[in-house]
Specification:
It is built from 40 helices and 6 strands. The chain has 936 residues and is mainly alpha-helical. The chain has a two-stranded antiparallel ribbon.
Length: 936
Amino acid sequence: MFSISTTPAKQSVSETITVYSGRLNSATLLEDRRAAILGLRSFAKDFPASVASGALRCLIGSLAKDGDDVDTVKVVLETLLMLFSPNESSPEASDEVVLWLADEFTQRQENITLLLDFVESNDFYSRLYSLQLLAAILSARTERTEECIFTAPLGISRLVATLDDQREAVRNECVSLLIALTPTSTEIQKLVAFENAFERIFAIVAADGSLTQGGRTVEDCLILLANLLRRNASNQSLFRESGCISKLASLLEGLLQAQLSNADIAVWAQAQRNRNVYAFLAVLRLFLLSGSAGVSQNQQAFWKQGLVYNILQLAFSREEGQVTIKAEALNTCGDMIRDAKPLQETFAQLMVPAPLLVDTGEDASSTLAAKTYVIDGLLDLTLNSFDQSAFDLRFSACECLKAYFSNHSEVRLHFLSRAIDGYMAAAEESANILTVLLRPDAAALARDPYRQWFASVIAFHLLHDNPTAKARLLQVTEGDSSKDEEVVTSIQTIAAHLITSITRNDDARISVGYLMLLIGWTFEDLDAVNDFLAEGSNVQSLIQAISHAVPAKGVLIQGLCAFLLGVVYEFSTKDSPLSRTSFHSILSKRLDREQFLERLTRLRSHPLMRDFEVTSQKHHPSLGNSLPDIFFDSVFVDFFKDNYSRIGRSIDRAPELEISVMTNGVQKGISRELVDSLRSQVGDKDRALQESKTKIISLEEALNSREAEHRQSSEAAAIELSKLKASFDNAESGHEEQLRRLAQEHSAKLADQERHIASFQAQLAAREAKYQNELRQAQQSAHSEVERVRLRADAEVADLKASMNRLEVDIIKANKSKALELQKLQEKNSRLVALEVDQKTQAENRNSDLEGQLRKARTTIEELQRKVERVEKTLSEESDAKRTAQTELDDLLIVFGDLEEKVARYKTRLRKLGEDVSEGEDDEEDGPDDTDGEVD
């Protein structure tokens, strides 16, 4: 019969994957393994977890086993890439699978090294897919992958060498991988840079069309360059010393030449060009980060290569719609000259295209070719550009101006002097900050509030921490006193404009700008404070602004007004136009302490002040023509936060306590304590002077009386002196006679003494001769005695020498005999030692034999002890059995005795009842006993 064929059971996906995995693991032929890999690849996109759990290690092992076969390697790498990027609709797709795959590679160094080996391969797909796979692993496990690549043999070198690949896909993939590998690790950045990466990156940029025509690859190369240079002083130094800054200059020059050609360019190409230029400017700014090492050298190198000039040409180019690029170029230019005094001084001499074209009646070409000095151009951009879409450009131009006079007091004074000269000359300069501040245009205020704001910010930076500039600007006045006009100082004019702006409810930015300027001006400047207080209505107007309700942004104005009042009170004095005591009284009555502190606190906690550092200071495109929320300057914000607590406490300081202001180490103004001290000293000295005059009069009277008494005493003394002189003459004549007599007596005594001395000398000479004779005799006797002793000593020495010779001969003989004896003793000792060694060896042998016998005896004793224990155990058991049997036997005997007594009683009872009892029964009963007796 024919059997009916049945359809085989359909395999599930997991079973199929298991079959392919087993085949890949066990197949011996390359074609079979490749077929299994192709089967796994077909499931990798939809079932990544199943394929990874069943075949991941087999796939990695296949890379190691079949690495020489290009087709197999390609299929394996494709399968692994599919596992890292499965279909979104796959039920098994998850981040955990990707992390598990990355762990499998990074937890074994040899797996990463294996992929790096394929990066060196010349095959297109092997190199491309291995780079993509490394990028996927790096994305999942960044730190581990960085460590594995860093520690792999020539890992970084092999990756950087791939930049030389002429195939764009491979090269671009390598750039992307290096971008992901280098953002944080300084060591990896250094290794990449020292593999000649800078030259290779510039070669790729040049090959791809540079900044002008380059695509996304150029942007990626610049991003990679930024990764290598960011906060890495070593790489920046290498870049600078390798001459790469000239390459940056060449790229920028090429861009400027392309802009001059005015060639038409597609919108997408222009967008890519802008991205390239923005990335290029970002790279330049990395060399100029504040506080980094080598900033000064980088600034000098940029200036030397002409980058500052070319950046300015880019910022002031005539191309429209490039606000972001131009703004970034101005920011970069500001970084290039900030705090570099030689560059700041030379910067003002550069010429740039006029930013705001003015119709001069000439032809268009001459208008387009108009040039202006860079400072004038920056002021034009900042103050006279009313297009809100160009706000970022205006803001950057202001930042560039601030960088121009940053930490350079001479440049700040020069800038301010030019502004003052232009203002005093009444010239029509729309780009003069003093003209804007002191003579505001009402129409311009309504159209562009930031004009006043930028002018105030620039003036604030000119005056901040610069007492000389403050004094210079304070001298600027309005009005001619010779024509009976009221003279108004510049600070009073600005205060009046501030109060007018607040009263008219002008845009808050105008008032904020004025307030920032006045706060910076009056801080630690007694003259400015006194000038401000000279106008009595200023304080009242500020208090009114603080007390009344205001619009939403009025919180800023109220807080700054309170801060300004606090600063003015802090540095006011007893001699101010509004005395410190009166000022404090006004503040206490019209503005209580709680309200003052509440206004300051609200300003400090306002998002525009509190979050200033993390808030973007740019005009967002979504705002359109609306004004951005930019109200404060960065330096002012730092100044406010630093002095917030001090000004908050100022209202609690008593009026009698004044603040001393130190300027350049010297106290400014007159110390109130010193004045009071000097006044008390002057009073004390006046009183002392009056007392001294009184004393002088009394002393003169006493002197006159004493002079009269002196004349009288002098006359009496003269009479007494004449008497004394006469008596002296008489005494003198008597004394001369007495002296002559004493002289004669002295001469006689002297002659007598000379005779005595002569006799003493004769006696002394005789004694000396006697002593000399005795000395000669003693010397002769001593000499003879010495000679005798010497001869005796020589004889004794000769005897001793002879004795020594004999003793030496005896010692030699004794040494010979002792040597023979010692040799004999040594030979005897050697024999004894050998004998002792033999005996020791024999004793050791006997000891080892005895130990063996002892061990055997111990073993035998142990066996005997075990046997004795077994016998004792057996005897014990037999004894127990015997006792048991004896007990049972005793019990049986007792039972038999009882039975015999019962039988005898039964026989007796039967006989009494008349029954015959035969003897045979007795015999039968006794028979066993008889038999037993016979046997016994």
